[in-house]
Fold these 3 entries.
Entry 1:
Amino acid sequence: GAGVSQSPRYKVAKRGQDVALRCDPISGHVSLFWYQQALGQGPEFLTYFQNEAQLDKSGLPSDRFFAERPEGSVSTLKIQRTQQEDSAVYLCASSLVAGTGDSPLHFGNGTRLTVT
Amino acid sequence: AQSVTQPDIHITVSEGASLELRCNYSYGATPYLFWYVQSPGQGLQLLLKYFSGDTLVQGIKGFEAEFKRSQSSFNLRKPSVHWSDAAEYFCAVGAGGTYKYIFGTGTRLKVLA
C-alpha cells in the first residue's frame, strides 16, 4: 500500500488479556517506530527498529510490552496481561532511512486500545 | 535533553482569520523541527519541516513556519484559516544524528464558521 497500515483500528480487551497490534510500514522503509498516545497528549516514544534490529526499547512502559519486526517489514506490538493504564492509541510510523533525526515520519492511523 | 513546549492547549479562530500556533524547543544544537497535523481518528500528517537554510519554511495546505534561533521557537502560521483546518497540531524536534523525535503535547484548533 501507499501508506502505513495498522490493524485493528479498534481493540477492546478485558483486563488481563493479551493483545497484538500490527503495523505494515511503507515498503522499503528502514526505520519503524511505535508510539503511545494517551488522550489529550502527544505521541510518546516506545521503541525503534532499524530493519529487523530493535535498537531502542527504552520507552516500553513495562516488561508486559514486547515488539518485534522479524523480517524487517511488518511489526507487531504485543501487550501481555493488559491493564487499564494501557488504554491509549498506539501509533506506528516509518521512515525511509535509518534514523538520523531529519527523516520525516509517516504515521499510520493508529490502533485505539481500550482496556475494560 | 530535548523538549518541546506548545503553550496553547486550545485555540479558537474564526474562518478566514489568521493563525499562529506557538512552539518552543530546548536542544543544545540546531534541531530538526517538524509540524504535524492530526485529524480525529487519524494518524499524524507532516505539514512542514526545517533542517537548515532559510528560516521561513513553506508547507502543505498553505501553512508556513519560522525558525527563530534566538527565541528557540518554531511557530506555525497560516494567513487565512479554513474550516477544514480544525484538527490537532503537534510540533516535534529531532536530534541530529539520532532517531529520537520528541513531540509536544499538541494544540487543538477549533474554527468558527
Entry 2:
Amino acid sequence: DTEVTQTPKHLVMGMTNKKSLKCEQHMGHRAMYWYKQKAKKPPELMFVYSYEKLSINESVPSRFSPECPNSSLLNLHLHALQPEDSALYLCASSQSKWPSTGGNTIYFGEGSWLTVV
Amino acid sequence: DQQVKQNSPSLSVQEGRISILNCDYTNSMFDYFLWYKKYPAEGPTFLISISSIKDKNEDGRFTVFLNKSAKHLSLHIVPSQPGDSAVYFCAARPNTGNQFYFGTGTSLTVIP
C-alpha cells in the first residue's frame, strides 16, 4: 500500500477564511511533506516533518501553518490567504533515513486544489 | 536556482517507439534520483528510481540511466503507449536530508 490520502480534493475559500488541508498515510513513513504546485511548474517544497518535528520550512509565509499531530497525519492550516496562493497542494511521505547511504522514495497524494477568492 | 533541469518541455513519440526523457542536475550531493508521472488534476505517481551507486535500473518498460560524471539522467520508455502520455518529472535528493528537488517537467505525447 503506497497510498497517501488528502482531503478535501477541492477547496474554495475567501481571503478572510480559516481552513485546513488534511493528509494521512499508513505506510509507517516518518517523513511527511507539503508541496505547492502551480500550473506548468514543478512541485515546490514548503515543509518537511521528520519524526513529527518540523525539520524544513522553505521560507513559507506564516499564513500557512503546518501541524503534525502524529506519525500518520499532517495538516496545513490556512488563514488570510491571497489569490496568488491558489494552487494544487500536495502532501507526500517517505521513510526517514537521514543521514543515509541510500535513498528512499517519496509518495504523493492526489492533491488538494485550493482556490482563494 | 533550479538544481534539477529538464530542458525539453515537450516530446512527441509514435506508439511503439522509444521515448527518451532527459534530466540534468547541478548538485553533486544528490545521491538518489526518481522519475514521476503526472496526469492533470492528480498528484505525481512514482515510476522508477536509481541510487548514485548504480548507472542503470530497469523496471518493465521503464529504464533509468545515470551518468554521474555528466550529472545527467534519462528515462527510456520502450515501447511507448498512448497511456504513457503525461507530464514526467525527474527529482533528486541530496545525501544530507529529506529534500526532494523537482525538474520543470516534460510533457510526453504518444501518438497512436
Entry 3:
Amino acid sequence: DAKTTQPPSMDCAEGRAANLPCNHSTISGNEYVYWYRQIHSQGPQYIIHGLKNNETNEMASLIITEDRKSSTLILPHATLRDTAVYYCIVELAGSYQLTFGKGTKLSVIP
Amino acid sequence: GAVVSQHPSRVICKSGTSVKIECRSLDFQATTMFWYRQFPKQSLMLMATSNEGSKATYEQGVEKDKFLINHASLTLSTLTVTSAHPEDSSFYICSARATGTEYGYTFGSGTRLTVV
C-alpha cells in the first residue's frame, strides 16, 4: 500500500487560498487519492478524491501531478471553519480500507 | 449524500462493564463497515472491518473477544467494548462506503468513551 507524506502543520490567512501538499511517490496505477478533514472531536469529513485528472467540487480542488507522485488540495477561500486536520490518503487497491497518516493541521488565521 | 449515524456520541461507563456503539447507514446499504479508534492527538487507527452476515476481520493487535462486532443487516453494525478498562477510553469512529465512487467513505460522528 502506498504511503503518504504531509507537512505536520500549516497556517493560512482567512480569505486566502490554502494549498495543502501531499507526496505519494509509491502510488500504483489503480489507487485513488482521497482527502478528508477532521474538525476537533468529530468524525472525518470527505472532501474530494481523484485518480489521474484534476478534480473540483463545491468544497475544494484536487491537483494531481502527471506522474501521480504528489497532489495538492486547494481550498480557494479559506474560512475559520476550515481549521482542521487534513488527511491525504491513498486507497489500498482492492481492499477498500483507508489508512490514515498524521495529516496536516491547518490553522486559518483571522 | 450518504449519511452514517453513530450513537451514542458520548458515554461514560464503569470499569468492568460493557458498552455498545451503533453505526447505521441511513440512506444506503453497506455490506462493509469499518471501525476506527483514535487516541488524543493521534490519527485514526483501523480496528476492524465489519462484514454483513459474516465475521469481522480484526487488525493485528486488536482483541476480537474484547471488541465484539456484529453486522447483522446491511444498514447496521455494532461494536461492543466488553469488560471495559480505563485504557479503552478513546474516540471510536465507524465508516461505510456507498456504492459508486462519488461519495468516497462516509464517517460517523464518533463516540467518546470514557471508562472510570
